[in-house]
Write a structure and sequence with these properties.
363 residues, mainly alpha, globular, transmembrane helix
Length: 363
């Protein structure tokens, strides 16, 4: 027989353990809801982007290149040959390196958009904290007989994550407008992906429910700041990447074209709609005959010399090609074009099923 005092102590320990376990389960469930929230997806993408950028910087650093060249006994390749030909001596040369005034203006507009998103997120977080009665550090209002609770709530953690995400996007936008074009292209891809994911999250949470009868926007409590963020995100993540002209990158940096082909500098929207051909079509409409001299110059990647250097090693036995059928050589030369055609045909065939499926569901 154990003394009664021991049994009482054991009962109290069991009760305390159960209480601690219930608190731990509640905390874990709260953290799980926080991590599973769709508003945290842009923060995850930002962390992944920063990790990839750091790895890319280390991989392309001169120290790593020297170490790799010593191990493999290979010379160090210079990747800045095109940029080294253009000496920068001022802001004008810097803008010229980035492709001209229009492209640089788009980059500045994207930087302004990212800073606007950061300001709107800070504003909405402050408004939500005032509405919930919490301070900047998550300290609730002191009531007469209650002890204030310190710490961030799940909503405050999400707002902080979005602020850090847009701060990271603003930093990337600033870097893309200030560094060399080679690094600017790398950073621009990260910004476009991050902003597009953020727009997709807000579209799913707050725009798509407006097209339903039973759902309602999740972040409607933010008021006008929510729709301002959706508009700015739409401009920075969709409009700017679609309409910004592309920088002309010559095939041979030593011999760039004086006037590049419009296809090489057209925006993505212009490439999809072929609007870069509009000046030529309107010119042919206004005059009775369009001579070959009035056509746009041939793109440097379509020049006979470039096509010969690209294709002959795969189809000409006298230039080192394998002894194989001409079909396989052509497939290797035009593999990119054939892959794009296969994907587009697959999308077209799949889309043809949309009409009968829609009619079936409607009827």
């Amino acid at each position: 027989m154990y003394p009664p005092s021991w049994w009482g102590m054991r009962t109290n320990l069991l009760i305390v353990n159960q209480q601690h376990e219930s608190v731990l389960v509640a905390v874990l469930k709260g953290k799980a809801r926080l991590f599973a929230n769709s508003l945290a997806i842009p923060a995850y993408v930002a962390v992944l982007s920063a990790t990839v950028l750091i790895v890319h910087l280390v991989w392309t650093s001169n120290v790593f290149k020297r170490t790799k060249s010593r191990i493999l006994s290979t010379p160090i390749d210079s990747e800045d040959s095109e940029e080294n030909l253009m000496q920068t001596s001022g802001i004008g040369d810097h803008i010229k390196q980035h492709g001209g005034n229009i492209i640089f203006a788009y980059k500045i507009a994207r930087l302004v958009g990212c800073l606007t998103l950061l300001g709107l997120t800070i504003y909405s977080s402050v408004i939500s904290e005032k509405a919930s009665g919490s301070g900047l550090l998550g300290v609730r209002k002191k009531h007469k007989y209650t002890k204030p609770k310190r710490g961030f709530s799940n909503h405050e953690w999400l707002e902080l994550a979005m602020c850090m995400t847009y701060m990271y996007a603003s930093l990337l936008a600033l870097v893309s407008a200030s560094v060399k074009p080679r690094w600017s292209r790398v950073v621009s891809k990260h910004i476009n992906v991050l902003l597009l994911v953020s727009f997709g999250v807000y579209f799913y949470r707050d725009v798509f429910p407006l097209a339903t009868y039973t759902w309602s926007p999740i972040d409607i409590s933010e008021g006008w700041a929510l729709w301002a963020k959706v508009i700015v995100l739409g401009l920075t993540s969709i409009a700017i990447p679609l309409f910004v002209p592309r920088r002309y990158i010559p095939i041979d940096p030593q011999n760039p074209m004086a006037v590049p082909n419009p296809e090489q500098t057209a925006s993505l929207f212009s490439l999809v709609t072929y609007s870069f051909l509009d000046p030529t079509i309107f010119l042919a409409y206004r005059i009775p005959h369009l001579s070959h001299e009035q056509l746009p110059p041939l793109a440097d990647y379509d020049a006979a010399q470039e096509l010969k250097a690209k294709s002959f090693p795969h189809i000409d036995p006298y230039n080192g090609s394998k002894k194989q059928h001409l079909f396989w050589g052509l497939m290797r030369v035009f593999r990119r074009e054939y892959m794009i055609l296969a994907i587009m045909i697959f999308i077209q065939v799949t889309a043809n099923f949309a009409s009968p499926i829609g009619i079936k569901n409607l009827l």
